[in-house]
Design a protein that fits this description.
- The protein has two helices and no strands.
- By secondary structure, the chain is an all-alpha fold.
- Helix 1 runs antiparallel to helix 2.
Length: about 180
């Protein structure tokens, strides 16, 4: 019970057929193996290309995020500068208003002194007699009211101007305008 075929039985066309089948099996196995190698190499190339693309995309995202952060830092710094400038302008306007108030108070004191002098020259003016004393009193009163109203209007105008300039500078700094 020998499992090997008899060598004499492989002679002739049967032998050639057996050898052909063996060669065909070996050739197809080798071709199949080579195709597998080529498919593996192609898959490796595709995976490497995807990895390179993912890396490039990740680097681009990191660069975009950094650029956005840098732009935000620039804008924040510009807005801080604008706010500091507005604070300085508001302080200067407050100093100017204090100077104007001091000048107004001086004028008011001078007008009151004139009224007292007019009353002192003519004591009957204190009772409201002569029209000169009432004119000086009226002048002092009107000067006081006008200067109070002018101070209010100047304060509103200063605040509006500073706010408008600050808004304009903030807009220009955020836009990146010079």
């Amino acid at each position: 019970m020998n499992a090997l075929p008899n060598p004499a039985s492989l002679a002739g066309w049967k032998g050639y057929a057996a050898v052909g089948l063996a060669v065909a099996a070996l050739t197809s196995t080798a071709a199949w193996t080579v195709q597998g190698w080529r498919a593996d190499a192609r898959a490796a190339r595709i995976e490497a290309a995807w990895a390179a693309e993912r890396e490039t995309s990740a680097l681009a995202i990191v660069a975009a995020v950094e650029a956005a952060r840098e732009e935000e830092r620039r804008r924040t710094a510009a807005l801080e500068k604008v706010r500091d400038d507005a604070t300085k302008q508001a302080a200067a306007a407050a100093r100017d208003a204090a100077g104007a108030r001091a000048e107004r108070d001086g004028l008011r004191a001078h007008a009151n002194a004139l009224a007292r002098t007019a009353i002192a020259r003519d004591p009957s003016a204190a009772g409201g007699g002569p029209p000169g004393a009432s004119a000086v009193d009226l002048l002092a009163y009107m000067l006081g009211r006008v200067s109070d109203r002018a101070e209010e209007l100047a304060s509103v105008a200063d605040r509006a101007r500073i706010a408008g300039l600050m808004c304009e500078k903030a807009y220009d700094s955020v836009r990146g305008a010079p």
